[in-house]
């Protein structure tokens, strides 16, 4: 706990899963009320101000008494005071239990939508109290998750139907379209009562029986029966083998690794500075092409951080409350766009030559991300002023008329909403300094790079050529070159 505290202290998370000891025994969750009370007390003592608790509702054999025990546990945690007598905040998150394939509960019914809502409503009413923040997972999402957790091959059709009906990013509540999923289920002949909310017979074949996970069905059935009686199973890592079927004790057997010796501090050491007090900063140029264009900005940053770590190149960390590696990307590429000229600045803990950085880093990069060069960082005397792009259409063609129209007009205004939600009018013609068709279906153009009026190639395709979202998504857009001019 002291070690965690050195790096991050915003919230301490505990997952009791169930409110009563009886139900925790059913799911083999080896943690007692006393453990939870003690841990929360210690966390408050250590200075944590927020405790996050995760529970499930609808666990097999759950009764009203278990829900009451959950409320009682949270109320007992609520009265614990931290150092200085301050009352900490408790976040309680609840999700509906989803029985999953290849587990002892694969034969259990998932609780119905109505029952899920009823239990959540009841908990919400009981836990309405200052200092307690109650959150829950949408029961409709849990229902769909339950469907996918134990579905059969009919789900392939459902997936295609839901996609065709416009279902995307369903994990985000503002994009979740339950009615379309229901329509898809009806069209595929999938009855949720039968697929999700029904218990399975222990002898009946299951859609995933042909997948060998090594854990035997007999073991899962025996565990299921033990769970129903509330009998716990020892962990074979520090107890006897339970004969689950995974190990052959030749190639496969449990191996418990010793935890590494604790470090004195979780924070990376401060970097050495040279005689002038300068940190060792470098500018890396890299290309992002092929399938790597589907890496989002944060994913790409994670890829670089891991590659640098594998290359043995230690980054300098910021020294604030949440230390983070010093790595700065010059641009945030839209998802799907390729680039032959991306730049990033890294700050190292130990000085390293430019050539050594490239030599060590390149072998660690995944396909599609390649290091083009590295140079010592110098404060730029120039800003990016223009960017060259190339667009190659797939299954569509550029017409000459929009280009003709643009030539004739003195302005071509488009509207964009900025991050603050304000509508902004931008003259596309003024931002476009060159444009030419590249047969057969290509287009090359240069856009001014102006942060307060940023125009991206997709804007050009949408507003000037009137292409729909599908054509734009399929187009191969490549950022070719950045041009720099004097700083303003
Ligand atoms: S030791 Fe291997 S076979 Fe025995 S219970 Fe553990 S994982 Fe299963």
Quick tags:
3 domains; Alpha-Beta Plaits; Transcription Regulator spoIIAA; four-stranded parallel beta sheet; alpha/beta; 16 helices
What report would you give on this structure?
The chain is of the alpha/beta class and 488 residues long. The chain has three domains: 2-229, 2-Layer Sandwich (Transcription Regulator spoIIAA), CATH 3.30.750; 280-376, 2-Layer Sandwich (Alpha-Beta Plaits), CATH 3.30.70; 382-486, Alpha-Beta Plaits (2-Layer Sandwich), CATH 3.30.70. The chain is built from 16 helices and 14 strands. It has helices spanning 2-7, 21-26, 33-45, 64-78, 113-126, 139-149, 154-164, 178-187, 192-195, 217-228, 297-310, 354-361, 401-408, 428-431, 457-464, 469-474; strands spanning 12-17, 50-57, 89-96, 132-136, 280-288, 327-329, 338-348, 369-376, 382-392, 413-417, 423-427, 432-438, 442-448, 476-486. Strands 5, 6, 7, 8, 9, 12, 13 and 14 form an eight-stranded mixed beta sheet that branches. Strand 12 and strand 13 (442-448) form a beta hairpin. Helix 7 (154-164) packs across helix 8 (178-187). The longest helix is centred in the N-terminal third of the chain and has 15 residues, at 64-78. It is globular, with a radius of gyration of 29 Å. Iron/sulfur cluster binds at residues 236, 241-244, 246-247, 254.
Radius of gyration: 29 Å
Q: Sum up the overall morphology in one term.
A: globular
User: What is the CATH first-level class name of the largest domain?
Assistant: Alpha Beta
Biggest pleated-sheet summary: 8 strands, mixed
Number of separate strands:
14
CATH topology of the largest domain: Transcription Regulator spoIIAA
Provide the succession of SSEs: HEHHEHEHEHHHHHEHEEHEEHEEHEEHHE
Name given to the CATH architecture of the largest domain: 2-Layer Sandwich
């Amino acid at each position: 706990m002291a070690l965690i505290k050195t790096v991050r202290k915003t919230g301490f998370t505990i997952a009791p899963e169930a409110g009563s000891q009886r139900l925790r025994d059913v799911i083999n969750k080896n943690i007692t009320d006393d453990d939870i009370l003690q841990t929360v007390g210690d966390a408050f003592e250590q200075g944590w101000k927020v405790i996050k608790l995760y529970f499930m509702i609808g666990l097999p054999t759950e009764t009203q008494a278990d829900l009451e025990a959950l409320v009682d546990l949270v109320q007992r945690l609520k009265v614990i005071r931290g150092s200085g007598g301050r009352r900490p905040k408790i976040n309680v998150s609840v999700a509906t239990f989803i029985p999953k394939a290849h587990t002892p509960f694969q034969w259990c019914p998932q609780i119905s939508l109505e029952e899920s809502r009823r239990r959540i409503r009841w908990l919400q009413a009981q836990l309405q109290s200052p200092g307690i923040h109650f959150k829950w997972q949408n029961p409709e999402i849990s229902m769909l998750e339950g469907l996918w957790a134990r579905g059969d091959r009919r789900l392939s059709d459902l997936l295609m139907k839901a996609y065709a009906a416009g279902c995307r990013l369903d994990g985000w509540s503002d994009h979740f379209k339950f009615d379309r999923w229901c329509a898809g289920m009806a069209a595929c002949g999938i009855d949720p009562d039968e697929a999700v909310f029904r218990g399975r017979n222990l002898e009946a074949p299951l859609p995933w029986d042909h997948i060998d996970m090594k854990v035997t069905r007999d073991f899962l059935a025996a565990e299921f029966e033990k769970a129903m009686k509330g009998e716990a199973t020892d962990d074979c890592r520090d107890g006897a083998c339970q004969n689950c079927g995974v190990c052959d004790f030749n190639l496969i057997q449990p191996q418990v690794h010793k935890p590494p010796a604790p470090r004195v501090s979780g924070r990376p050491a401060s970097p050495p500075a040279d005689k002038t007090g300068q940190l060792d900063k470098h500018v890396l140029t890299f290309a992002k092409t092929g399938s790597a264009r589907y890496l989002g900005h944060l994913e790409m940053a994670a890829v670089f951080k891991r590659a640098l770590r594998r290359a043995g190149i230690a980054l300098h960390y910021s020294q604030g409350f949440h230390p983070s590696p010093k790595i700065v990307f010059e641009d945030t590429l839209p998802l799907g766009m390729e680039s032959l000229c991306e730049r990033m600045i890294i700050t190292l803990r130990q000085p390293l030559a430019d050539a050594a950085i490239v030599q060590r880093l390149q072998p660690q990069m995944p396909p599609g991300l390649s290091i083009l060069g590295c140079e010592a960082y110098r404060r730029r005397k120039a800003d990016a002023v223009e960017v060259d792009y190339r667009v190659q259409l797939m299954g569509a063609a550029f017409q000459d008329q929009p280009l003709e129209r643009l030539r004739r007009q003195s302005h071509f205004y488009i509207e964009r909403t900025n991050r603050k939600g304000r509508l902004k009018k931008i003259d596309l013609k003024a931002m476009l300094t060159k444009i030419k068709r590249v047969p057969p279906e290509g287009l090359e153009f240069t856009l001014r790079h102006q942060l307060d009026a940023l125009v991206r190639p997709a804007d050009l395709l949408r507003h000037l050529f009137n292409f729909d979202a599908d054509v734009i998504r399929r187009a191969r857009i490549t950022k070719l070159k950045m041009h720099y001019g004097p700083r303003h």
